Each structure stands twice: as C-alpha cells, then as structure tokens.
Amino acid sequence: MQRYLIPRIVNLAGVTAIAGLMGFGLYLQLFQELYPCNLCIFQRIAFIALAATFLVAGIHNPERVGGRIYAAFVALFAIAGIVVAGRHVWLQHLPPDQVPACGPSLDYMLEVFPLSETIQMVFEGSGDCANVSWSFLGLSIPAWALVWFIGLGIVGTWVNLRGKLQST
To answer: What sign results for the dihedral spanned by CA atoms 57, 61, 66, 71?
Structure first.
C-alpha cells in the first residue's frame, strides 16, 4: 500500500509560505525601517506557532487521529491570528477621531504590568496600530496577514482532517 504524500507536502508548503512571510516582514523591518506595532508582534507569534504546527505535522505525517490533532492546532493558531489581524484591520479603518492614543511599547508593558493586563492593553490597540505605512494591491500588512491566516487555516485544517489517502 502506497500512501500519498499530499498532507506532508501541504504542511511543509505551509511552513515555507510562513517562512517567506516572516522573511518579508523582517526585510520591511530591517531595510525599510517599518517597525512592528504591538498587534504586529502578536500576529508574528501566531504565524510562528502555525509554522511550528505545520512543520511537526509535515515531519510526522500522521494517520487519521494524529491528523485531527494537528488540524485542531492549525485551526486554533489560525483563528488566533485571524482575531489579532482582524482587530488590527478594524483599528486601521476607524475614523481618525476614534483612533486610540499611541501607547507604550510592548517591552515596557511587559516590564511594568502583569501579563493579563499587557495582553488586554495590546488588544485595545493604539495609534501606532492604526497607521498604514505599507500596502500592496490596496491591502495593508495586517489585511494581508488576515488573508494568509484564513487561507492557511482552511487548507491546513482540511488537509490534516482529511488524512493520508491510500492507493488501491
């Protein structure tokens, strides 16, 4: 019985896509001096967790039960990314008079406030998060992140739930 490698290929393609996205994000940060806001950092964390799940699933290439577990983790991290990126896009589309004031950096908040309060303040957003400093095809970085979280979440969940197929 020969097993198809579709789940393994898709999972490793997910890692590759996220590595490309993270590389581009680092390029923008280091060479274009577009520094990430607090919500951007949380989106990066969600992408890294999603990539780690894709990598382990791609290496492991599990049977049906393992595939369901990986599908659950892919869905969890993709939904977390969708929530953060969605909030970020929403902040960017607020009228200027409703944008929250710029807040302290994430490093400062982690030093001064408890973790739960820091997370709450990050999700409230700030004026830094509402700035659109780069766009491609009319979409900002958080909007593209939202698109990628949705796409990777759907494909990764579906292929891992589906599991390996066997040829006849």
So the answer is: positive
User: What pTM does this model have?
Assistant: 0.78
Look up residue 161 and give its two tokens. 């739930």
| Confidence class for position 155, pLDDT limits 50, 70, 90 | very high
For 63-89, what is the mean pLDDT? 91
Which has the closest alpha carbon to 69: 155, 157, 166, 153?
157
**Mean pLDDT of the region 25-51:** 87
DSSP H or E stretch at residue 140: strand 139-140
- Which residue pairs from 72-79 have beta carbons closer than 8 angstroms and sit at least 24 positions apart in sequence? 74/50, 74/152, 74/153, 74/156, 74/157, 74/160, 75/153, 75/156, 75/157, 77/46, 77/49, 77/50, 77/53, 77/153, 78/46, 78/50, 78/149, 78/150, 78/152, 78/153, 78/154, 78/156, 78/157, 79/153
The answer to whether 146 and 82 have CB atoms below 8 angstroms apart is yes
Residue 45: name the closest of 154, 161, 145 by CA.
145
Residue with tokens 């698109």, as numbered in its chain: 147
Residue with tokens 């710029």: 102
Residue-level pLDDT at 81? 94
**Tokens at residue 94, please?**
């607020």
Report CA-CA distances (Å) from 78 to 11, 21, 61, 131: 14, 15, 20, 24
